[in-house]
Write a structure and sequence with these properties.
single chain, 138 residues, alpha+beta, 6 strands
């Protein structure tokens, strides 16, 4: 999973650090300069609805409220797609992904794709007072 004990998360300014990968929906990482632009990276997952979830969602539609089963399914899909994108960027030698965007589409009746993409880059801090999110190992 994306947000587990293995990958500590640091939120600063408008970027997120997952493990040793900076993630930003901006075209840059605040307080850092892009030293190398590598390539576009993406991650996707296709998920289908569960008959039991559909039945419960239909009942929930009658009384109103959040469809928590679908919310959980969407969150799991986001995490899986992000993990795949991060792994591809890591294999390319990136330490950041900028311009991150999400997209969804219907593949078949009852099945949807969640797609995330961005640009894998190498960044270095350019503000002396900004703590390095990747301190040297002791």
């Amino acid at each position: 999973m994306l947000f587990d004990q293995q990958f500590p998360i640091f939120i600063a300014s408008s970027f997120l650090t997952v493990g040793h990968m900076l993630l930003s929906n901006l075209e840059s990482v605040p307080g850092h300069i892009i030293t190398r632009q590598i390539d576009v990276v993406y991650g996707s997952t296709v998920r289908s609805k569960h008959v039991g979830r559909d039945l419960l969602a239909g009942l929930k539609n009658i009384v109103g409220g959040e469809l928590t089963a679908y919310t959980e399914l969407l969150e799991e899909s986001r995490q899986e797609a992000m993990n795949r994108m991060i792994e591809k960027a890591r294999q390319m030698g990136a330490n950041a992904i900028v311009g991150i965007r999400f997209s969804t589409s219907n593949i078949a009746q009852g099945a949807s794709e969640l797609f995330v993409y961005g640009t894998a880059v190498v960044v270095e801090p350019n503000v002396p007072k900004l703590p390095d999110p990747f301190p040297p190992a002791a």
